[in-house]
Amino acid sequence: MYETFHCHTRFSDGELNHRQVLEVCAQKRISVVAFTDHDFLPDEKIWRQLKRWSDPKMNWVVGCELSSGLPRELGSGPASSFHIVGLFVDPFDKKLNEHCRKVREGRMERMKQMVKNMQELDLKISVTDCLKEARGETVGRPHICSALNKRKENKKVVAGLVQKMAQAAKKDAAVAQKYQQMLRAGEKRYPYWLFLSKTAFVSGVYVDY
User: Fold this and answer.
1) Which region holds residue 122: left if phi is over 0, alpha if psi is between -120 and 50, else beta?
2) Cα–Cα distance, 141 to 119 (Å, whole number)
């Protein structure tokens, strides 16, 4: 049997709900799974669903992954410096839920700014597109990337940026390395390497926490 102590659902940047994750893990002989969504804790409805899970060979744990920065005595820094995964947390802790709520609000503002920046690149995307992919939950870059890929008109813009990166790679070894990594990652993940990350080829689109 296997265990996984870091798992995301559709309530952050995963694709399945809690029940579906449990079913997949049971099929794959995973005996313990920890739900550690980004800045999200199960509410009472989800909690009741989890409590009804009755497979004695498949257990679950409630956790949470929090975006963090360096301690103040080390100079602080952006919230995306690293993430902290907590396990066996109380999903009804008021202070923790309030913290998660504020972070999710920040993610929403961050998404809106990145949408505006992408529109300036002539990419067809809207806040509504991203919210639709997130299905009303925490909006992350995977949702933004998925929204971009669903619009056929964006392929031409992305292809043009890929061509520019290929040309730059001929003169810059660092760009060449990232270009090869992008190709290996696959076409659906091109936006991350082109403009949706801190070290992307095109600067000024990605927004930190």
Assistant:
1) left
2) 16
Q: Give every CB contact of residue 93 below 8 A, 6+ residues apart in sequence.
A: 41
Residue with tokens 């550690």: 36
Q: Residue type at 78?
A: P
**Residue range 43-74, pLDDT digits in tens:** 999 999 999 988 888 899 999 998 877 777 87
Q: E-strand spans in the chain?
A: 2-7, 30-35, 59-68, 82-87
- CA 62 to CA 7: how far, in whole Å? 10
Enter the tokens of residue 158: 């992305």
DSSP-based three-state secondary structure for 105: helix
CA dist., res. 209 & res. 111, Å (int): 10
As beta bridge partners, residue 7 has: 35
Residues 165, 98: Cα–Cα separation, whole Å: 42
- Using a cut of 0.85, tell me whether the model's pTM lies above it: no
